[in-house]
Amino acid sequence: MNGRAVFSNRRIALIAVTIAALPCCTTASGRQKQDGTGLRAGVARVDITPEKPVTMAGYAGRKGLSNGVHDPLSARVVFFEDGDRRLVVVSTDLIGFYGGTAEYLRKAILEEVKLQPSELLLTAIHTHSGPSLTIDKQKGHKNNLEYTGTLKDRLIRAIRSASDAMAPVSMGAGTGYCPIGANRRELRFDRSPNGSIVLGRSPYGPTDKQVQVVKLAKRDGTTVAVMFDYATHGTCLGGGNVTISGDVIGLAEQFVEKIIGGGSIAPAFAGASGNIDPWFRVLPGFNEEPGWIPEPVLLGTVLGEEVVHVFRGIKAVSTSGRIRSAFEMLNLPGKPTDGAAADKPPQSASLALTVARVGNIAFVGMGAEVLTEIGMAIKSASPYEHTLVITHCNGAAGYLAPEHLYVEGGYEIRSSPFGPKAADMVVKRAVKILHDLQDSETSVAR
Ligand SMILES: [Zn+2]
Fold this sequence. Notes:
Elements: E1 17-19, E2 40-47, E3 68-69, E4 74-82, E5 85-92, H1 101-113, E6 120-124, H2 142-164, E7 167-177, E8 181-183, E9 185-188, E10 196-199, E11 210-218, E12 223-230, E13 243-244, H3 247-260, E14 268-270, E15 276-278, H4 295-313, E16 323-333, E17 348-358, E18 361-366, E19 369-370, H5 372-381, E20 386-390, E21 399-400, H6 411-415, H7 422-436
Parallel strand pairs: 3-13, 5-6, 12-14, 18-20, 19-21
Antiparallel strand pairs: 1-2, 2-4, 2-7, 4-5, 7-11, 8-15, 9-10, 11-12, 16-17, 17-18
Helix pairs in contact: 1-2, 3-4, 5-7
Bound molecules: zinc ion.
Residues 126, 233, 369 line the site of zinc ion (ZN).
């Protein structure tokens, strides 16, 4: 099916913000406090589909501008509040915040919404079929410069709308599994007799198959948000594609919203997916042969159906959720640049680490492309019942790879700004902060 709409025909409208208006009083379970305290939240979704042709992010070789839209891009906001503590989680159908745009957007949001640095998780699903963000007036395309400025305004409006919709909620979580992510570090022997690691498919390589799902509902049980986290790149579509799309994760979000309905939103996060591609990868476009299900749609549907399966199985919910958060800019060992003398001390490289918890659900946001082994290490050492590892969060420092992969090399290692010891330091620091954010007053009902 051809669901495309060319730019010239796209409806140019005022920003459509979907707000799930939540009631201010309920007749919920006995755990609920009668005065309306306890966990509160508001949600909002805003359309961020480019209205003009734009340069697209993710493949250096792709030239020219986008020529249409397969599926719309959105930003989705969940604004948590517990007493005077707040946590704003923003999921965007974008590649990430490169070229200083993380700092640009975060500064504007923190100032306008009056948040502390640790209270904002600004994240992207890493679709490679979305616009490039830029604030570079010399090199950036004018349409992308305009898009990035508009995005800032839309994000602030959406966060304000979520804040305005604040009301008591209950929250629960569950875990499922999905096989669509494939380790992409393939050992091939076509370039040297000893073989080399290239971007491809390593079907027996490690992947994190967990699909983590967080359900947020009104106190009358009506679902307002289904957050989910899964580790895959948004690279089912390759550099030959010039049509705007959320790729696998974006299509999964749209599937979940369509199935669950009722105006609920499905903000997604890319887990530790630095070395994980979708099973079908870097395809030239949406295959429209009769009878064929385009691969991004197929894989997005498989992921979306698992999210819905898990969502429908979540029974235990809590109406309390203590919020704590911390933000650190980690200074990590960097790699010497090519050609540097061997005795020259390695440069350092920084990484934004944001750790937060809402009740017994934790979020570890990293401003980098984190390889999947690192995410699994953090999850397995976390003291929380559910720990969502989120990449492309609050920064864009490049690849962060575990030390043992530096021996075999490959694309992620070559392009990483970090030295081999950096990943362990990040894992240890994230786990330490997760413990620090615990306290004796945790009162999550199960
Ligand atoms: Zn990537």
